[in-house]
């Protein structure tokens, strides 16, 4: 005697004896299931039409960051590549810029002769926190763009980081005093040797 057989004997008086309550419930659910199956089918079909790849590929037919962008349009793909390059460049600029300089301590571009007031420190802290949040948000956007597994997106993102580091983080555009102090960049002797 199965688990549902006891249930079927008590409820079989109201239904025909040839079908069990389990079969009746299944039949009722099938009738209601048509509505949910159409939704599932539509959802499944829309995912099948996307350009989701799980390995790196080359080509303009992809989705980067947003559904349907850039899809199959060459012009939009080029714009998406410039967007990723610009975001990587912006991320490097934000990472290497210093906005506030307090009492000779290099924390940015605003120089103070006397110790700042508590209120000024709070404002500076809020600006630094907002900048940090922006930097992390851009970094996550770039990560998601690279996770589209499009080879072109990977190359322009790495190129944007490299160009940004060259302009904002390397010795190339630092003053002699900054280069001598080694602030913000790796010292040449700190690099691993082959």
UniProtKB/TrEMBL annotation:
Membrane topology: Multi-pass membrane protein
A GO CC term assigned to this protein in UniProt: plasma membrane
UniProt source species: Trapa natans
Protein's cellular compartments: Membrane
Stated name of the protein: Copper transport protein
Keywords annotated in UniProt: Copper, Copper transport, Ion transport, Membrane, Transmembrane, Transmembrane helix, Transport
Stored InterPro entries: Cop_transporter
Molecular function (Gene Ontology), one example: copper ion transmembrane transporter activity
Chain coiled-coil ranges: none
The UniProt record lists the keyword Transmembrane: yes
Transmembrane regions: 75-94, 121-147, 153-173
Biased composition (Low complexity): 8-20
Family that this chain belongs to: Belongs to the copper transporter (Ctr) (TC 1.A.56) family. SLC31A subfamily.
Residue ranges, annotated region (Disordered): 1-39
Superkingdom of the organism of origin: Eukaryota
Predominant localisation class: membrane
């Amino acid at each position: 005697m199965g688990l549902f057989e006891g249930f079927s004997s008590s409820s079989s008086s109201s239904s025909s004896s040839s079908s069990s309550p389990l079969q009746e419930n299944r039949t009722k659910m099938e009738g209601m299931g048509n509505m949910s199956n159409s939704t599932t089918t539509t959802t499944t079909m829309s995912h099948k039409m996307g350009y989701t790849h799980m390995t790196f590929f080359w080509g303009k037919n992809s989705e980067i960051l947003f559904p349907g962008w850039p899809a199959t349009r060459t012009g939009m793909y080029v714009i998406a590549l410039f967007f990723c390059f610009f975001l990587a460049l912006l991320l490097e600029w934000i990472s290497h810029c210093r906005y506030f300089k307090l009492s000779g301590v290099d924390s940015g571009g605003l120089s103070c002769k006397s110790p700042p007031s508590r209120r000024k420190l709070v404002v500076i802290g809020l600006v630094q926190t907002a900048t940090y949040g922006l930097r992390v948000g851009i970094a996550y956007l770039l990560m998601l763009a690279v996770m589209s597994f499009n080879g072109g997106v990977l190359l322009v993102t790495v190129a944007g980081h490299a160009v940004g580091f060259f302009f904002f983080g390397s010795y190339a555009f630092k003053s002699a005093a900054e280069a001598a102090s080694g602030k913000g960049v790796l010292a040449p002797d700190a690099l691993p040797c082959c």
